[in-house]
Structure formats: C-alpha cells, structure tokens
Design a protein that fits this description.
Layout: H1 2-20, H2 22-27, H3 29-42, H4 46-71, H5 78-82, H6 86-92, H7 98-121, H8 127-132, H9 135-149, H10 152-175, H11 179-204
Helix pairs in contact: 1-4, 1-11, 3-4, 4-7, 6-7, 7-10, 7-11, 9-11, 10-11
Length: about 210
C-alpha cells in the first residue's frame, strides 16, 4: 500500500540524503507537493487518490528535513517541528484533503508515541551523544540504548504501547469504510514496524541501523 511505502521511504532515502545535503532534501518538498496537487487535480483512478497521500507526505518530509538537517542534536525540538502543520491537518480532516491529513496525523502520532516511550525509559538522554559521535562510537551508544529497552519494565512499556497502537490500527481498518481511516492505520502500523526494525538493528547490527 502506498501509505506504508511512504512511511518507509524516509528511512532509506531521506535519512542519508539529509545527512549529506539537507538543503536540497528540503527543497525536494516542492516537487512532492506539486506532484500531489497535480495528481489530485488531473489524475484518474488510483493516480488521483495517490495525490492527497503525496500532499500529506510532503508535510512529513519537510518536517523531517528541517529537524534532521539542522536541529538533530535537540530531541525536545523533534515533535514540535514534526507538528508544524498540525493546525492545518486538523482543519482539513473534514474536507477534500482528509486523506492527506489522515496520513500526516497518523505519522505524527507514531512519532509522538516513539518519542514519549524513549523519554519514559530514559534513552532519549543518549540522543545528542549519538548524533554527535563518530560512526563507530555512535554504533556502541545505539547498542547501549537498545539494551536498556530490553530491561523488563522498559520492555513491558514498549510492548504495551505497541500493542495499543496495533489494536488502534485494527480498529481503524476494520471499523471504518472511509479510506482515510485505512490510510491512517497503514501509516501508523508501518511506523510501529519500522521502530521494531530499528530496535533489532541497534541490537544486532548497530552500524547498519540507519539511526545516526
């Protein structure tokens, strides 16, 4: 599904791009937005429904570029920057752009839950050190953070939040016929899966985790 693919895209494309050329990565928001608007206006069938998704994704893309490009050493700024379009997204839920807004809001919810769990278990304090450290040292710090997650109280919290989000995704997918709910469920479920992938990579292959 396109919503899930758009959640995965920043992991494999945006992250390395922002590290090398944050300004050009941020500028890429414009063609994404124009393509989404064009597909919504002139597309047919699947192409037309893909347009709003790209519009919502362009908001998440820009926020990610701004934070990881220039503010990555300040974890407390992460969620406020990611939420820059929140008022617009909430306003647009009842209109023609509800699919775009649903994608953006679901992605934002996943980010908020991830950051909250990191703060509650204490690993967020390692964030500045990880992004400032050389690659070999960053890998060790990532592994240390991942091992903290495996402590019983922390693991219980992580699994509990993941289960709650999974249940919410199931409810949104099965309990609603509106495609916007399905998009939100797919985006949120993929975010949870990516978080699990990052945790596993940080434990088993921290140099390849892609988190730095």
């Amino acid at each position: 599904m396109l919503a899930a693919l758009l959640v995965l895209l920043p992991v494999f494309l945006q992250a390395p791009w922002v590290r090398l050329q944050p300004f050009s990565a941020a500028l890429f928001t414009l063609p994404l937005l124009l393509l989404g608007l064009g597909l919504e206006r002139f597309g047919r069938g699947t192409w037309k429904t893909s347009g709003p998704l790209l519009v919502g994704f362009s908001g998440s893309w820009l926020a990610g570029c701004l934070f990881w490009g220039w503010c990555r050493e300040h974890p407390l700024w992460h969620l406020p920057i990611e939420a820059f379009a929140l008022p617009l997204a909430l306003t647009g839920l009842g209109g023609r752009w509800r699919m775009a807004c649903s994608f953006y809001l679901a992605s934002l919810l996943g980010t908020a839950c991830t950051d909250a769990v990191m703060a509650l278990i204490g690993v967020i304090r390692l964030w500045p050190a990880v992004v400032q450290a050389p690659p070999d040292q960053a890998a060790l710090l990532l592994q240390t953070a991942a091992q903290v997650v495996l402590q019983p109280p922390c693991l219980l919290l992580v699994l509990g939040v993941a289960a709650a989000l999974g249940a919410g995704c199931h409810w949104a997918w099965r309990g609603h016929r509106d495609r916007a709910w399905h998009i939100a469920a797919a985006a949120l479920a993929t975010t949870v899966a990516v978080d699990g992938l990052f945790l596993g990579a940080a434990l088993l292959a921290p140099k390849l985790s892609g988190l730095v």
